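Example 4.3 (complexes with small molecules)
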Amino acid sequence: VEIVSSLDALRSARRALQGTVALVPTMGYLHEGHLALMREARKRCDHLIVSIFVNPTQFAPGEDLDRYPRDPEGDAEKCRQLGCDILLMPTPELMYSDDHSTRVEVSGLDQTLCGPRRPDHFVGVTTIVAKFFNLVQPDVAVFGEKDFQQLAIIKKMVRDLNFPIDIVGVPTVREPDGLALSSRNRYLSDEERAQATAISTALVTAHRTWQQGERRAQALLDSAHKVLDGAVGLRPDYVQLVHPDTLQAYAPDDELKNQPAHLAIAAHLGHTRLIDNLRLDRPLAAGPLEKL
Ligand code: PAF
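Answer. The structure with pantoate bound is encoded below.
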């Protein structure tokens, strides 16, 4: 793996690659979820470029930018093991000059779920991802389905701005007890970690309720809330049943006939905010959720 931290070095390393290139943008502290993205990228293209950049513009004041976990040496070793060709690790100063003033905003899809709760977050994400797309010029870019709103917004940005890039989503990787892998899980105390499983259990419970034929939005939401209410110290931020493409929330008194349904949950445990989601009208993927 060639580790580059200047844009000139990136451009010349990129020019030297023959064949197709996949990009996996990350904020580092790589875990099995990121490695799944990298493996998928590796399968689809001749070359793999990974970026590690804790992007300041997607954190609001008071969020966890300063304490976001970092492990550059460990990350570089994982990239090496997975056959990554180029690892881009730029500094904030390199990505954002003092007079940087361009923002990429995908309006609409950021009006639901995490959008109103994290104003400017998705503008920060789409701006940095668009910059990486321009710098790397990948054929394919791979993102996790755990951040399914982010994935939907990036797909829309690529359509709107005509980036010639295939956006690929990879299913969420989970701990054996169902908790979705996230770099933020390391903030959890033992007690919080034990309570955190309520999030994936709530998703599976609603999935089961759907599979038993329930189509009333309120009843589906209630089945998830019942599980979350039983987790001491867990404070739901939102529990929403949305259309998977438009991300519009169904109203509690809606009865879903042939519409698809995606359940999304955000919850606080102490100072940590976790998100997870599950498509209700599809079978569960093989893995930990089946066993809950
Ligand atoms: O999902 C993430 O880790 C980040 O939001 C991303 C896509 C790397 C942009 O900073």
